Amino acid sequence: MPEPLTHSPETPQTIAESGRSDDRCRDTRTRLLVAAGPVFAARGYDGATVRDICSAAGVNIASVGYHFGDKLGLYRNVIQDVRLSRAERFPAPNTDVEDPQRTLHALVKTLLARMLTAEDSEWETELLMRELQSPTPEFENIVEEFFRPLFEQLVETISLLAKTDLPEQTLQQLAFSTVGQCLYYRVGARAIGVLIPEQQRRLHYGIDSLSRHITTVMLAAIENTSSMQHYIEHADH
Amino acid sequence: MPEPLTHSPETPQTIAESGRSDDRCRDTRTRLLVAAGPVFAARGYDGATVRDICSAAGVNIASVGYHFGDKLGLYRNVIQDVRLSRAERFPAPNTDVEDPQRTLHALVKTLLARMLTAEDSEWETELLMRELQSPTPEFENIVEEFFRPLFEQLVETISLLAKTDLPEQTLQQLAFSTVGQCLYYRVGARAIGVLIPEQQRRLHYGIDSLSRHITTVMLAAIENTSSMQHYIEHADH
DNA sequence: AGCTGTTTAAAACAATCGTTTAAATTCTCG
DNA sequence: CGAGAATTTAAACGATTGTTTTAAACAGCT
Asked: Rg for chain A (alpha carbons), in Å?
């Protein structure tokens, strides 16, 4: 029976608990993890084949079964690595109760940076976007661990900015308005590429310019929401 | 040689040009078109299987090969039908220069309706969203015929609402902020479903409630953008 | 009716998918 | 060194994919 972890794909490997510095094992394991991310991002979970991943990693096809149980196990580990990687690469700012405006701007900047940064970590964003449209069994965990913290910090910051007490659902909608604007410059990037000439795009669609714009929009909206939400209600007739 | 259009999948069928009222043929052809849309939308082009589509249409597996040449030929016809269908189902409102606020609200409502309407045409939106993430050669046409008219009308309406003259790129960014907020309630719908309990969602995330919220946000932003965009510029230090 | 061309039906095609097997190899450690 | 566990290898499994084939059923026309 040479199947050490067929029934426990969660546990990395048996010898890990012995504390050994498993050279060989860790090698193919990490090579799989490194190679799998971009492939999953480029072709989606279903579209990515284990053969492509293993070929890109330069390992045998059976390795994914041995080290991760199955394809989904590999995917889960990739997602987990993405979470760790992004947490330190794009750290969420601390909430500054003294200067919530700065906090909001920092949050927007973080969101936009995560969306638009085109480094070698570009595939990570693509992977998360794919989860939004074609969720895998990992989706709920991703929302809880990726989105909820930022969302709640956003709600809290907006709450600090509002002069009057706003109902919870209004705070949440304002938070979604913020996230939505940031997300659009990724989701709708291809449409923007058609609508806006490249020359203009280069000038006015950088992270700094956009974060300033979105923050301005939201500050104005927050300030006025509590006092001027009568606009539509009576014009609806 | 019983393969009439293997080399010309664009042409519907040979007898069409003879003007006959091809009952039988047109029947399975349209049944395939009607059934294929939702399947393509739900599972994506690759994920959708010819067998599923034919099973849903109640026709034989070989029919798609006969009528459309191959799977891609069927997909192209589906996309084309979507373009025609949506143009008349969700007409953009006319610009009312006397009441740009009402126009903006109507535009937001149209956008949200296209995004969130859960009729039988729901799959059309899903299909367009998939084109945003994984564009086909049809994508540019879709942007030009669907997005640009609404986008330019949005820019014009915002321009009418602004008290002072705003630079073109500011108007465009404001338009994207509007579209982005609307789009998010579809793109991020699955995330919202995790973040917000269903009970709350039912109450505050309908088209009316959201369009009112987004319009309020944008009216406040437009009104203040020209006079209070100093917020961040000097706080950046 | 009888023939011809068109359309559908059921089966089979080759290719590819994720996964498994069983032997070969490498490594660990007494 | 050499026994035994850990790991990698090559091959094959069964299921499913898009597509094609073969024969049967249907249409319209003389």
From this structure: 22
A237 touches chain B (CB under 8 A): no
The string of pLDDT tens digits covering residues B111-137 is 999 888 877 778 999 898 988 888 777
Tell me which residue in B220, B223, B232 faces A212 most closely, judged by beta carbons.
B232
Specify the residue for token string 């003259």: B165
DSSP, res B166: P
Chain A contact for B42 (CB, 8 A cutoff): no
Angle at B179 between CA B176 and CA B183, to 5 degrees: 130
The B residues from 79 to 108 touching A (CB cutoff 8 Å) are 101-102, 105
Q: Which helix (H) or strand (E) holds B227?
A: none
**Which DSSP state fits B147?**
I
Contacts of B191 in chain A (CB under 8 A): 132, 143, 147
**Which of B135, B181, B220 shows the shortest C-beta gap to A228?**
B220
Q: Which residues of chain B have pLDDT under 50?
A: 1-25, 229-237
Output the CA torsion B111→A212→A187→B166 (10° steps).
40
Amino acid residing at B51: R
Alpha carbons A77 and A170: distance in angstroms, whole number: 37
Cβ neighbours of A203 in B, within 8 Å: 169
Identify all chain A residues contacting B185, using CB atoms and an 8 Å cutoff: 176, 180
Q: Which residue has the tokens 């606020």?
A: B101
CA-to-CA distance for A178 and A225, rounded, in angstroms? 14
B85 or A78: which carries more pLDDT confidence?
Answer: A78
H-assigned helices in B90-138: 100-116, 122-133
Chain A residues 127-166 within an 8 A CB cutoff of chain B? 129-130, 132-135, 139-140, 143-144, 147-148, 151
pTM of the predicted structure, to 2 decimals: 0.80
Which of A226, A217, A234 shows the shortest CA–CA distance to B101?
A234
pLDDT digits (tens, 9 = 90+) for B193-223: 999 999 999 999 999 999 999 999 999 999 9
- Give the span between the Cα atoms of A180 and A115, in whole angstroms: 11
In total, chain B counts a number of residues equal to: 237
